[in-house]
Amino acid sequence: MNEHVTIRQPVEWEGKPIRVPAPIAMLAELTHRCPLACPYCSNPLELESVKAELSTAEWIDVFQQASAMGVLHLHLSGGEPASRRDLVELTAAAAAAGLYTNLITSGIGLTEKRIAELSDAGLDHLQLSIQGATPALADKVGGYKGGYDRKIAVAEWTHAAGIPLTVNAVCHKQNMDQIGDMLDLAVRLGARRIEIATVQFHGWADKNRAALMPTREQFLKTNAFVEEARKRLEGIIVIDYVGADHHATYPKACMGGWGRTGINITPSGKVLPCHAAETIPSLVFDNVRDRRLAEIWYEGQAFNAYRGDSWMPELCRSCDRKHIDFGGCRCQAMAMAGDAAATDPVCVRSPLRTLLMEQAEADSRAEPPPFVYRGR
Amino acid sequence: MSDPVAVPVTAETVAKLARGVRLREDEVRGQTVLLAPERALALDEIAVMIVKALDGVRSLDMIAEEFAAKFEAPKDQILVDVISFVDEFSKRRMLELKS
After folding, report:
1. Which chain B residues have a beta carbon less than 8 Å from that of A166?
2. What is the CATH number of the domain that holds B36?
């Protein structure tokens, strides 16, 4: 145990005990296996092996526990979730448990037949990632030749099966100038929604900062573009946008607040407050193989570590914005300040803000070096 | 593929929930929620009633007529409210519309 984390119970907010709300969403990383090798993959640097993965029956039990404790949305993710042979069975069990099922996929491993089976199993929604608006760039970023063409086919099969589609466009220095084309592609593919999300610089992305960090000009141009496109395409496509937080003034409300809305399960059953939480060495992660999910959520050390405001430094505890951003991102604080309870370095009030900006500026100006691909 | 044109909402509009959008009784929190991709909206009783009335068969005018009779309230005002509700949810791509 590291010295700067103690469990404080009951959790307090402005000196008063708070009732911890039930989680709304669960991200189930069914596997870390993936045919793609995106250089900003959100999986940890230490990928979990296929042998360690939860069985079909174990996942189904987790879904049933999640639904009973108030989870509404289930995100079936990975790695590439289609790498699990039991994906259709898992989807059917999750739907039967009453969960809203969302498949987050690269598309690789899905066939027309499998998409029809997922539709029959009750899949509510599918999110398909695209890495660029041209095959050359998209396949370079994903590290998978032929990926772009396959994704277009998957989008068409999804549309034909009647499953609503969101296109996920992760953006960064090398594809940000294609955002307009990526949005047009999403509309052409019949997507009702697009998520334009700037790379978050943890894990693999942190190894690729000089290849991925957008410039301030790109950030401002994308902000303006999104604002204009939202008006132009109202009623046609919904645009959800996450800007580059290194260029923002205040931190993001990471995970909607630590241990407030979301719960993340790794392929081997570890339960995390966010997908990058394992970068914080002081946290202890429970496993669904050892404890009930509700007990982990309400009583687990990792979930209680940054709930409420008693863990916050004075700068944050006395700040009006703590109701908006809940103190920002703990993993970013860990990475830059060496202390997960420090003020998020993105915040304009953080003493590390200048350093963060200088590093972002230098990385954004750098001639992009070759990618360090995930897991290769 | 899809028709990339936003449809205006009028009294003649016929609407139903789009696939991937559905009502769920949230027993843990004691409320009714409308679930959509990355969205969970807690609805009040009136909103639930409107959503349930969007059956893909009756026009908004017919629905307003029914509500007016049921609640003994002026139909014109109800119709304005129903159109505004449907317009809002349609912009969020939660409905399928026919005019």
Report:
1. 37-38
2. 1.10.10.1150
